[in-house]
Write a structure and sequence with these properties.
- The protein starts with a helix and ends with a helix.
- α2 links the parallel β4 and β5.
- The chain has a six-stranded mixed β-sheet.
- By secondary structure, the protein is an alpha+beta fold.
- The protein is elongated and about 90 Å long.
- α1 packs antiparallel against α6.
- It is 48% helix and 15% strand.
- It has one domain: 3-Layer(aba) Sandwich (Glutaredoxin), CATH 3.40.30.
- The longest helix has 42 residues.
């Protein structure tokens, strides 16, 4: 063999080795993700002894304006099982991640007067007319679904102290024109005593990459609703609140890492 042939031979061998190593690394990562998927699903969502603890409870009221202009308060919903989320009218992430599941919940429980949806805008730009148009576009039934506006200053405080949602703020990033505000995208479920029993972040889960995690997360919302319909909400103790909150943070962290 000539010197050139020898060089080409070993170069080819080297490229094959690199390719094989890349394949093995990729397969290892896929197995790791699958194990993590299975662990998350089995530990957090497929539990025959399902009994969600209390994450927080609403003890003070927040007065709001409904989509029809009438004044209501969140405490008016006591006695209902409430599905709650934050939004603003031109938020692309709200439309892609949350509105379809909320429409599904509205349809699934349309004949159950004890299930109610409430979403509140975090933007002062959402006028009464904007909210009304938003409701028409997504097909809101006002008997089942409140779309609310509140004083932003009051909402900031209530958001931190009662709802335990992350602070919302103006987006100063490069995508600010498309997403003028940053806010907590989680959907929560409150029992009849307005105690939060579940909080799920569908937005952070890549549905195409991790369909099992997404489906389990989505199913957990309905499962929490059904549990709240069947239980009074007196089962969990105050001691369970911190433990469940810690588990929730761990799950959110795990899902976020998997979704990247």
């Amino acid at each position: 063999m000539t010197k050139k042939q020898i060089i080409m031979f070993y170069t080819g061998v080297g490229l094959v080795c690199v390719l094989l190593m890349s394949v093995f690394i990729w397969l290892g990562k896929q197995q790791k993700v699958k194990r993590a998927e299975s662990q998350l699903v089995s530990q957090h969502f497929i539990d025959e002894a399902y009994q969600p603890g209390v994450l927080t409870r609403l003890e003070t009221d927040l007065r709001c304006e409904m989509q029809d202009g009438s004044e209501v308060g969140l405490l008016d919903l006591k006695g209902k099982v409430v599905v709650f989320a934050q939004f603003y009218a031109n938020c692309p992430d709200c439309m892609s991640a949350n509105m379809q599941p909320l429409r599904e919940i509205q349809e699934k429980y349309k004949d159950n007067e004890d299930v109610h949806i409430a979403i509140i805008t975090i933007s002062s730009d959402d006028s009464a007319d904007v909210v009304k148009t938003f409701c028409e576009n997504i097909g809101v039934d006002k008997q089942k679904w409140w779309v609310l506006r509140a004083q932003i200053g009051e909402l900031v405080t209530y958001n931190r102290e009662q709802l335990k949602y992350a602070d919302f703020k103006k987006n100063e990033g490069l995508d600010a024109s498309a997403r003028p505000y940053l806010h907590d995208m989680r959907i929560s479920v409150f029992d009849r005593n307005l105690e939060m029993r579940n909080m799920v972040d569908l937005f952070s889960v890549d549905r195409e990459k991790f369909p099992e995690i997404y489906d389990a997360s989505r199913t957990s919302i309905d499962r929490a609703i059904d549990w709240c319909l069947e239980n009074t909400g007196d089962e969990a103790t105050a001691g369970e609140t911190n433990e469940v909150g810690a588990e929730l943070e761990l799950l959110d962290s795990s899902v976020s890492q998997l979704s990247k």
